[in-house]
Amino acid sequence: MQITVLAGGVGGSRFVRGVREECARRWPDGNGGTEASVTVIVNTGDDIWLAGVRLMPDFDSLLYSLAGVNDTERGWGRAGETERVAAELREWGVGWPWFTLGDLDLGTHLARTAWLREGATPSEVTHRLQQRWPLGVHLIPATDTEVDTDVLVADPDKLDGEREMHFQEWWTRYRATLPAIAFRQRNIEAARPAPGVVEAIAGADVVLIAPSNPVVSIGTILSVAGIREALAETSAPVVGVSPIIGGKVVRGMADACLPVIGVETSAEGVGRHYGARSAGGLLDGWLVDEADAAALAPLAAIGLTAASVPLWMRDLDTSADLAGAALDLAV
Ligand code: GDP
Ligand code: FO1
Ligand code: CA
Fold first, then answer.
1. Nearest ligand to the C-alpha of residue 171?
2. Residue numbers of the domain that contains 321
3. Considering its fold, how many domains does the chain have in total?
4. CA 183/CA 269 separation, integer angstroms
5. Residue 217 within any structural domain of the chain
6. Closest ligand to Cα 218
7. Which one of 91, 126, 266, 283 has the fewest beta carbons within 10 angstroms of its own beta carbon?
8. In which element (H, E) is residue 300 found?
């Protein structure tokens, strides 16, 4: 059984932990693991060069979370983190004072940057980073091209009335409160799928779209030329999970992103946005929460097989049950 997941950071991590757990239940290997092979295609649109080091926040969220060394309260970074270096960087005026690089986390950024400087590609670097902990899944970046996301916002002080900033500044400094006009992934036209991405989609028995941000996580992955085509061509069923429950984002600020691309913040809206594969879209199946059961009929009308199940990933059990429901829909 080969399962391929498209994922971003927090929603992606919780879901992939659930997939790993559900696979160990359905296809046990006798050692607490699974005989199934799980490959995660990871969003790289949040990545950034800061203070001389390369950050890959969504990849690191998945890495730390699957290794069990993540800070579960904050949703990013390492557990038991200290911030001595960050205090020094603030004194030197290096980096951003409102963006904290923890000491343990900096170890990861330094290792990654050292390998990049030696000529390794991002996918080679992410491969090396995964050797440290037995994750039980394979993480691959969607692309090796740097496609850092910029956000265009209104700025009355500028001649053209607009200003562009890195996604991390918009997200972390302004908590997504500056109304966004557009998201632009740098160099996205030149981006190609990283090695193994197209193969993971083509060779999958099931492809799952995690309940991740449809614009800046899944949207960025799909913008890489060749990935959408691979999804259209694969013989595997493609099943997605809604990140929206009862018209609200469960965690985070994705509701600040969806209106920018003209998509309603609802399970039905995101389902329509991804579209039915039978009608040139992405999905064969779409999971919505029980609170959104009213969306099932209109989604069926556009050719999308949808089902309603509990979508809250409160703990490992509920995450695994959700992964199981997604696998069940993929028939
Ligand atoms: P980010 O990269 O850290 O922003 O995380 P992702 O892009 O992977 O996921 C963000 C999305 O996850 C948000 O839009 C949330 O609505 C969604 N999300 C977080 N927790 C849950 C959950 O328990 N259930 C569902 N269905 N969605 C969730
Ligand atoms: N999020 C914050 O809200 N504040 C921070 O200081 C911060 C630092 C940080 C450092 C490394 C890293 O990988 C992620 C970090 N995040 C921080 C999370 C990140 O900004 C976003 O939540 C994600 O990129 C959205 O997916
Ligand atoms: Ca992200």
1. 2
2. 1-48+58-64+134-330
3. 1
4. 19
5. yes
6. 1
7. 91
8. helix 296-301
